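Section 5.1 Outputs to date
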Amino acid sequence: MVHHNSTDAFMHFIWPHFLWCFVLVLALPFGYLWLLRGRRRFAYTYPNLTIIRQALGRRNSWRRHTPPALLWLALCVAAIGIARPTAQVTLPADYMTLVLAVDVSRSMLAEDVEPNRIQAAQATVKEFLSELPSNIRIGIVSFAGTAQLVQQITDEREALVASIDRFQLQRGTATGSGLLLALSTLLPNSGVDLQAAIYGEEFGRWGSKPLAERKSVTPQTPAPPPVPPGSYSNGAIILLSDGRRTNGPDPLAAAKQAAQRGVRVYTVAFGTPNGFIPGWEGSSFYARVDEQALQAVAKITEGEFYRAGNSQDLKEVYRHLSSKFSLERRDTEVTALFGAGALLLTLLALLLSLVWFKRPTTEH
């Protein structure tokens, strides 16, 4: 079965301290009732009360209070609007970029998914690409012992399909390397230091001098200031893995870098707990998915985690992701809606007052 975890976001306010205005507005009905009681203290003498009752009619008792009630509702709506509320609204996706990071370690040869994990994943990813709208561009990264960019970001589906066919299985599982390369591909100017993160600070010596001591032609871009996790709305990363990390940087540390840049990472755990690889280079072994790490990566970045135990589950996961990126949920400020509601209620109150309490003109 397919399982995924998601975080539901409720309405929140950009200026929550202005909600005190709403508390003050709630007290207005008590003042209104106090004024009505004060008016009832004055007594008038009429020769015949029946005439007054007939003149007022039964409808005037609630008509008299309807416009003030509408004005009070308008003030309530306006008071909430002053606090600048935001809510998650489902909107058609704008121009977006997705980077797929696919595990190509040798554990993908496990035959718990027919015909095996890698062939099932390749077929499903191709189907996923065909269902995405044309306004979404795709980049593809593969990772095993290290990570490599298989296909630059493009909107040409044929080039993407061809790059998936070029997957080559390798030793090791460097999940963190794949995630960092996907992040650097999505945001090339975000200051992700791939060399230091993947290979270490001392990587790359020319003769006796490390690269750090040589004059750099393209200096490293400084990292931008951190932003709220999940706030980047122009793209995301989809990470598919079927094994445990064996080398490379910690995927949780890589997830924190993605979260600091607001990028969501949607993780897919592919395979069953009893995945078995027969006869790889003269040896056989079991390949188990590190679901705990993938769940943590999704949680850190405000993404979602999915579990797919077979090819059909994987297809359902990618169908769900396809619909998510076609119609995405965004935190959108809805202050204008509250302002429009307050204006309509005010206009309705004024209109009813003019219609119900219009004084007849006297003819001379």
